[in-house]
Fold these 2 entries.
Entry 1:
Amino acid sequence: MHGSDHNQSTLCLHLPGEASTIAAGTALAAALKPGLNIWLIGDLGAGKTTLVRAALRALAYTGPVKSPTYSLVELYKLSSLYLYHFDFYRLNHPEEFVDAGLGEYFTDAAIRFVEWPDKAAGFLPRADLLVRLRHAGDGRELELEAVTAAGQQCLSEVSGHLPGGAA
């Protein structure tokens, strides 16, 4: 796994295989703080749920971790922390975010991972960190972009937890 800094608010990594995706999720877990909104952007099969699963495992969650494609949201209770994993792929209209009462999950006490955030555009609170995953040859490219000060703090801590540090 190697990376490069385009600027202080973006970190790009090449993930040659699943083990490096898990390592990136583990590094992300170490930097998570309550209140963070993390948008996961990438095509189907790009590794979004794999990254979330790795983060949850690193936070000592041992139960099943599945994509919330049909349920819209999965809740994970981690000691004193709540982590919500959303998947809005099946939303037909952004207003469905409001109709389903999903705004109540966006509190300072929880962490949120959101797949397909564009499907709830205009209703979703802003992201702190954008996570872009895309296929690249046999592996994937991972780009982390801080949008807020909280996202910047998270990004700084992620780079410090990557194996060997980010080059």
Entry 2:
Amino acid sequence: MVSRFFLLAASLTLVACSGEPAADEAESAAPPAPEAAEMVATVEILEPAQGDTVDGPAVTVRLATDGVRIVLAGDTTSGTGHHHLYLNDDLTPADQPVPTVPGSIIHMGDGSTEYTFEDVPAGEHRLIAVVGDGVHVPLQPWVVDTVTFTVRQ
């Protein structure tokens, strides 16, 4: 019995002194994991939601983002941008500043997350939200959301 104890103790001592880290030491000695993949920025049109029927002619749009901070136009800090809305209009080229078209393509350069379109006619409409940088160029990869909704009057 005593010899088994000494044999076990000697084995443990040999393992402990072998220069190989124990399992918990190996984890702490391992190089740090690579940085987590950068968070992909998203925008979501909260209102009107996909498929909603809303009373018009005024239509209020509410937006939320994740992974990008909404700031004033002109702020070119990395990780920031501001909203642009396209009502019944197509997206403009990715490398071009978003134009202004009254009632159709709206810049929300004041850092807001809510906008009200006035005089939206009854019927089905498509709304696209795009986050652009400080000089109105869409962020890359695109930070965009699209919904269709119906206005009743």
